[in-house]
UniProtKB/TrEMBL annotation:
Extent of the signal sequence: 1-27
Listed name of the protein: DUF1501 domain-containing protein
Coiled coil: none
Top-level taxon: Bacteria
TM spans (from-to): none
This protein's UniProt keywords: Signal
Amino acid sequence: MFDRRSILTRGALGAAGLAFAPRMAFARAATPKRFVFIIQRGAADGLGVIGAVGDPAFAGIRGDLAADVASGTKLDTTFMLHPAMTNAAGLYGKGQALFAHAIASPYRDRSHFDGQNVLETGGSRAYQVRDGWLNRLLGVLPADQARAIAVAATVPMALRGSREIASYAPSSLPQASDDLLQRVSMLYQGDAQLHGLWSEALATRSLTSDLSADDGRNAAATGALAAKLLAPDSGARIAMIETGGWDTHTGQRGRLAAQLKGLDAMVGALQAGLGPLWADTMVLVATEFGRTVAVNGTGGTDHGTGTAAMLFGGGVKGGRVLADWPGLSTAALYEARDIRPTAQLDAFIGGALSSHFGVDPARVMAAVFPTSAKVVATEGLLWV
């Protein structure tokens, strides 16, 4: 016998093959603040997103990839933003975008799966922690009686934990028959919370696909849908959007530009959709690790270490790049090929969360990054 939750879960599993489709997960909490975590699965090239044009070694070691940022937005005397990120550049100009460079999680190897596990669980090594930091974050926020909700093919690791998360996958719906959709809709008629989300999924199920698909318009639609689900007073407060396609081993120039255009459209749609609520919204963009500094033989880059992370939002103390820049000379690189990390992603996320939700930084670090609890959260990321 299947109850409605198991039907949703089984339907979600059918979409597991859509590994690179943007997917969303949501959770409720009694707070006026909105928080969105956009994960870049595949190890995004931080140096391709924010080029260190002021570093004497940059142009020589990046070769053709150096041209990617040549026409971008100048952020300061060292860094330029990729030209595909026009919305991000606008937010940076308004002081609502903050970038951190030469940053990394505690993970120091080169496996996507292990690196994503560390990023999503908040542990110091892969599979050390069994639940996700977004789930644990719910425990330090004001609680209400609403159950947590996920809208995703599977509940992302970051949202798994003791707090119940139900899930379904709008991207799997085109494979379902009209009769099945109608019957599931009838099941939800008496549930105001799930019926509303199900209706949204039915209305927009054709919108979610690859981040770069349809010239970024699908990514924008995903951001707009997330904003609609976050905006209501009774709606979700925490969202996670999974994006793929960042593993650029070959032909990086065109692929990265398309990915960044989609990401930029997603952030722009979130801002537009949330309207005045943008003042109480923070968007974190992070990836499991970076990529090699030098270009490989196929016009791409390979798995690396240090990378870039981004914060967007009305309260973000932006318009700057946080970086204790290690340099790009061979001697300065990590293992002679990667950006050497000089900042801890755990501390960056912990500092952002504590400021955004008004919770003691030490409490946030202990709950969200238990193995890094003694790490001091980064201060001064938001206007508070």
